[in-house]
Each structure stands twice: as C-alpha cells, then as structure tokens.
Amino acid sequence: MKLIDFNQDEQFNYLRQLMGAEKLGSFELFDPQLHISWQDRQLLSKQWLGINGNKLHSVNDSLFYKNSPVIAKVDHILHFALCDELKKNITNGLLTHADITTNTRLINSESNCPFCLHAVSYEGFDVYRHRHQQYNDKIIKDFQLSRYILSKSSVFKA
Ligand SMILES: [Zn+2]
Questions:
Q1: CA 9 / ligand 1 centre spacing (Å)
Q2: What is the 130 CA–ligand 1 centroid distance (Å)?
Q3: For residue 28, pLDDT beyond 80
Q4: For residue 58, what pLDDT is reported?
Q5: Please, where are the H alpha helices in the chain?
Q6: Confidence of residue 26 (pLDDT cuts 50, 70, 90)
Q7: Ligand 1 centroid to 126 CA: how many Å?
Q8: Which of 51, 63, 87, 103 has the most crowded Cβ, counting Cβ within 10 A?
Q9: How remote is the CA of residue 42 from the centroid of ligand 1, in Å?
Q10: C-alpha 33 to ligand 1 mean position (Å)
Q11: What 3-state DSSP class applies to 135?
Q12: Residues near ligand 1 ion, CB 5 Å cutoff
C-alpha cells in the first residue's frame, strides 16, 4: 500500500502557507500564564487594559506583557521599554497596576518616560548625563512614541 505524502500535496502546502506554519507540526499550546488570549488581544488593540504591572517584562528592548509587546501607562507616564523606573518598582513588587495597550491612537496627550529612551539608547540619549541636557531636551521634544513603536512591531495599530 502506498501512503499519501501530504508534504508534497499542493493544496495542503498552500493552506500551510496561508496559516503561516513554517515548520511541520509547529504549534504552541495556549498557556494563559504566557500567552495573551484572543479576547485580550482584541481589547488591547482598542483600549487600555488594567493589569498587574509586576508582570511586565522585556524582549529585545521592547516592553512585553505575556507574549505581546505593549505600551504601558503608569501615573500618566508612558513606558515602552523595561526602563530603570519600571525595573525598580517591579523588583520591589510596587507596580501592582499598569494600563497597557497596543493602540497608538490612545497615546497622544501623555508624556513619554525619559528612562525608556535611555533603556533603548534612542539616538544616544543618556538620562544620567546632565551635561547633555540641551541635547536630551531636544530628543524628548522631537521623539514621537507612536512612530517609534509602529516601526518596532506590527502588533501595534495606528
Ligand atoms: Zn520608562
């Protein structure tokens, strides 16, 4: 008996391509501790979602909640990296609440965290070197969080 080799099947390969499945049998089981649910992902793309901020972490210079990059709002300051301010509060277990989103249209009026600019070394920004104050002020004034964040990940929506 000759078995059908589905790896060579044009239609199956087409479907695999549509699904974005790169490897055969490559899938991850949903783990609510590690993965954002479909519902939360929908909410994040539309509004702020309140979470335990101590769960925020860093992946490649980006701020993550579970498996998604996010922007976090803490006391009216926007964070987009795991900066020294967030790290300090998380280490001490003090960041019990943070609002997060992936919708860049929600982030216009708040001010950006300078420690986050430092954390990602944005254009050489160094928050601790005060003799660069003029340079730092210019960076802060010109920095557009929505433009920066949209260039980092397709998860963010304009
Ligand atoms: Zn920050």
A1: 50
A2: 18
A3: no
A4: 96
A5: 10-19, 38-44, 84-91, 114-119, 133-142, 145-152
A6: low
A7: 13
A8: 63
A9: 25
A10: 24
A11: helix
A12: 79, 83, 85, 113, 115-116
What is the b/e burial string over 10-38, where b = at least 16 CB atoms within 10 angstroms of the residue's CB? eeeeeebeeeeeeeeeeeeeeeeeeebee
pLDDT tens, residue by residue, 84-143? 999 999 999 999 999 999 999 998 777 999 999 999 999 989 999 877 788 999 999 999
Q: Which residue has the tokens 């101590």?
A: 54
pLDDT score at 114: 95
> Would you say 140 and 114 are in contact if contact means Cβ atoms under 8 Å apart?
yes
Residue 29 is encoded by which pair of tokens? 């089981």
What's CA 139's distance to the chain center, in Å?
22
The tens digit of pLDDT for each residue in 36-70 reads: 999 999 999 999 999 999 999 999 999 999 999 99
Say whether pTM exceeds 0.90: no
Report which of 68, 70, 89, 87 is spatially closest to residue 78, judged by C-alpha positions: 70
35 Cα to the center of ligand 1, angstroms: 23
CA angle (126 as vertex; 124, 128 as ends), nearest 5 = 165
Kindly report the backbone phi and psi dihedral angles of residue 74, in degrees, each rounded to the nearest multiple of 5, phi listed first. Answer: -130, 120
Q: Give me Rg for the CA atoms of the chain.
A: 20
